[in-house]
Design brief:
eight-stranded mixed β-sheet, single chain, 16% helix, alpha+beta, Mss4-like_sf, 159 residues, metal ion binding, zinc, binds zinc ion
């Protein structure tokens, strides 16, 4: 455990456990997450997962304990090649089965955006339903708004 994690942060928190599809990567979230579950409808999330949106939870990177071989993909080279001035970001994957465990945006270097579909079902149930939806302007067609969740056109903290 990192020395930066206070005993208070870790106390009384039952770790959340998850893994990739093939079981090569296993992980625990060992302290309370940094936020509440949210959905993201942005184009990157669609492409990375092959789905219509991602289901996520922001956790401190030092609370995410991973075992097994993983690969981190970064958008940096791809972004430069396209002359894109957007923010860099990346994702952590299983090199065997391709499951994405989390996104690692460069603008929040101390945090990871966990893809919560990789959690064990019983731990996923502990989280409850999403409280926010991001990039709703890029929501395509049929996904209905999550009842009771706040819908944002883009990323709501963008300054
Ligand atoms: Zn795997
Ligand atoms: Zn997204």
């Amino acid at each position: 455990m990192s020395a930066n994690l206070s005993a208070e942060t870790v106390a009384l928190f039952e770790p959340l456990h998850g893994e990739c599809t093939c079981g090569n990567i296993k992980y625990d979230i060992v302290a309370r997450p940094a936020g509440q579950p949210f959905l993201c409808h942005c184009h990157n999330c669609k492409r990375q997962t092959g789905s219509m949106f991602t289901s996520n939870l922001i956790v401190l990177r030092e609370t995410l304990k991973i075992t097994g071989k993983y690969k981190v993909w970064s958008s940096e080279e791809d972004r430069k090649a396209r002359g894109d001035d957007g923010k860099e970001w990346g994702g952590l994957f299983c090199p065997e089965c391709g499951t994405q465990i989390c996104a690692l945006p460069d603008n929040i270097p101390d945090k990871a955006i966990l893809r919560i579909g990789t959690l064990d079902p019983k731990d996923l149930m502990r989280l409850g339903k999403p409280v926010t939806e991001m990039f709703c302007a890029r929501k395509i067609g049929w996904p209905a708004d999550v009842e009771g969740a706040a819908q944002f056109e883009e990323w709501p903290t963008r300054g």
